[in-house]
């Protein structure tokens, strides 16, 4: 076998045994030139801008692919945990988080047979969608035609992702096939047994690749957490330089908490949110009216509710509501002196916050109701256990004691006057018996008494 560095090159009719340095080749067969430092920086900026464009257009798969390339190139160019790496890692983590949440929704709706809610361009649920709320509350009211349509839509969504995966796998197989052909030419002298072992090894490798793809499909949320964790580490590195890095860390922690909630790591989410609140107290101009603080309290409430801490959830829903109410009061005071354009924006913000407050009231009521129901269940359980214990105690008290003294045999009583005669008679019998035994041992028997 000849290595690539030992290949000979024909020059006219001569063979020159010189080492040829191979140049990088693009997929179309053309040689690619090495990028300069400035070109690499421009490439990072280009990839990042393209990734953000895909992200805000909700083309999440393309966004994740392009932004991950931007992360890799920026890490190579600027160094690990550099300030320039923050935004690519932050937005890549956000895109992966949104993608993971959509995957979860597709699975949930596919299992329940319900349609996915319509979304606006920003990815949030539309305020007035065409789905009947009553059908969500009672799925039995959905007609058979609608159920069939739902199954088709979910199937198409899942099939689209599977098709893309299949194309990627086919491309990989073709590349591997070309490599295997080269290896077979080089290893033509191997025996048949070796060939069979190689074939078995290839089958095992393909099985491992299939298992790897299945594992990868279940770790999108974990990938999002890892990218955001890198962004958090970058913030920590530059935290003392300016308040801007504190604000960046606040945003990063909020998305990290969403990742932890998605993975049901509620304690980790609450820990990150506590750090987030401490930073907000340090940098917020008015903590009591800051909407980001309200969002933090809302996320804390969600984590508590999902972790069955309903009382804590209701309390934090209420805290988020109080902040929004205070913010509305401040904005209403500014309306009179605001310009026309600013007035419309302010009025829109007020209406939005009022809608959020109504939703918070419902969530708080739901948490309080859940707390009451759980308390009733616990009280009922304690009552049942107490009744069972009382019944067992009562059964133990009613059962008669098993007195065995009545079963003991008592000696028969004799008349008091007969005791002396009985003792004397027994003594005479014992004396005669002992005398006879002594005579037998001496070999003679005493003569019988004469008549």
From TrEMBL:
It comes from the Eukaryota. Gene3D superfamilies: Tetratricopeptide repeat domain. Keywords: Coiled coil, Repeat, TPR repeat. The keyword Coiled coil applies. One of its GO terms (cellular component) is nucleoplasm. GO terms for molecular function: histone binding. Residues 113-217, 394-451 are annotated as: Disordered. Residues 136-154, 162-193, 425-444 have a biased composition (Basic and acidic residues). Residues 194-214 have a biased composition (Acidic residues). The keyword Coiled coil applies. It holds the Pfam family SHNi-TPR. Signal peptide: none annotated. InterPro entries: NASP-like (IPR051730), Tetratricopeptide_SHNi-TPR_dom (IPR019544), TPR-like_helical_dom_sf (IPR011990). Residues 119-128 have a biased composition (Polar residues). Residues 314-370 form a coiled coil. GO terms for biological process: CENP-A containing chromatin assembly; DNA replication-dependent chromatin assembly. Residues 252-281 form the Tetratricopeptide SHNi-TPR domain. This is Tetratricopeptide SHNi-TPR domain-containing protein. It comes from Diploscapter pachys.
